[in-house]
Every structure is written in C-alpha cells, then in structure tokens.
C-alpha cells in the first residue's frame, strides 16, 4: 500500500496564490484541505500556460475549435502550440513527481475539466475541458477543479488507505 506522503497532487499554481493567471493575478483557494496538503509536501504546483512559454500577464485565450484544436487569444493570435507544449510538459511533471491526480483551475483553456469559455470572449461557458486537463485524463489522471474539493477529499481518502 502507498503511504500518504507518496500521493502527490498536481495543482494549478494559481490556486496556491502564484500570480500566473493571464491577467497577472492568482486564484488562491482558502481551504484547510489545501493548506494541509501543502504542509505535507503533497502538492506539485504547475502553470501549463507558462510551461508552454506564455508570459504573465498575457492576452486571454479561449478554445475556438477542438477538432482540429485551435486556441486563440483575444487578438486572434494562434496560441495552440504553446498550449499543447504546456500540456505535454505538465504531463511529464505529473509522471515524474508520481502524482495520483490533479486539482486544476476550472474553466481555463488549459486546466478546465468540465467546462470552458465558448471561444467568443464574452464570459459564456460551455461543456468541455482544457488542453492540459484532456491530456491528463487521457493518461488516466483524475482531474478535479476548485469546486470539487469534496470529491478530491473522497478520492484522497481512498488513495491513503
């Protein structure tokens, strides 16, 4: 059986307070669970967009098409290669660090696991997932978002047995 300390969780760096969002801000989660996991050294922070070479701050980006994949920023510049590169590098980090799952930022074109913005830059949400979340899920990693801390807690309880 695995020990609790070996069950690392990949986490969007913005959720831990890193100012890596497109607008230079963070999405800090104020959660006892997250503080405990961080104190136990179980969190592996990553920003897929920065891993892919995008700067902070940067123009907001949204998924335009899934097949073939096309992601553009608000200036209609194609940033698909950077998002794909970031997804691959993030997967490599998760594998190298022995992560059992991921806690990613909801609605992000990289990290969203259930819904993303619709590609029109008007704050409209649609079902779908981001590039990195897709890659992680394809490789068998459960992906949760900050609205699913209860499900993450349940998953971790099973892993820690």
TrEMBL record:
It comes from the Bacteria. InterPro entries: 2-thiour_desulf. Pfam families: 2-thiour_desulf. PANTHER family: HYPOTHETICAL CYTOSOLIC PROTEIN, INNER MEMBRANE PROTEIN. This is DUF523 domain-containing protein.
